[in-house]
Amino acid sequence: MSLVVPDVLEEGCTTRQALERLASKWRVLLIYALLAGPQRHAELRRRVAGITQKVLTETLRDMERDGLVQRRVLKETPPQHVEYGLTALGKTLQEPLAAICAWATENNAA
């Protein structure tokens, strides 16, 4: 049995589509932040230095649409309170991201 290597250069490749979804630095940083557990919008904005409110909102919406993040309404009446947490699918990214961190640490001197 031979190893099947996806052709990530082809637009229809599922691996390419996954890489494109995760290519945003904000997505990866938000995943890291949410690995600590569900958090509210303001908490995420404080933890992820440099992200604007607009970009945070857009990125969280996109991640929710992709099934990586779950939005939970804590209080319906204004002002509404909402928290975001990783879905089971989002949590599966912990191991691959840890591998990237380990690689970066090992190759820091390069």
General description of the model:
The protein has 110 residues and is an alpha+beta fold. The protein has 6 helices and 3 strands. The protein has a 3-stranded antiparallel β-sheet. A hairpin with a 5-residue loop joins strand 2 and strand 3. The protein is globular and about 50 Å long.
- Largest pleated sheet: 3 strands, antiparallel
Q: What portion of residues is helical? A: 40-55%
State the secondary-structure class.
alpha+beta
Query: What is the radius of gyration?
Result: 16 Å
Integer average pLDDT: 90
Shape: globular
Order of helices and strands: HHEHHEEHH
Proportion in β-strands: 5-15%
Distance between the termini: 36 Å
**Total count of helical runs of at least 4 residues:** 6
- By DSSP, the count of extended strands is 3
Low-pLDDT runs of 5+ residues are none
Strands of the biggest beta sheet: in what spatial order? 1-3-2
What key attributes describe this structure?
single chain; alpha+beta; three-stranded antiparallel beta sheet
Layout of helices and strands, plus pairs?
Layout: H1 14-22, H2 25-34, E1 39-40, H3 41-47, H4 53-65, E2 69-75, E3 81-86, H5 88-91, H6 94-106
Antiparallel strand pairs: 1-3, 2-3
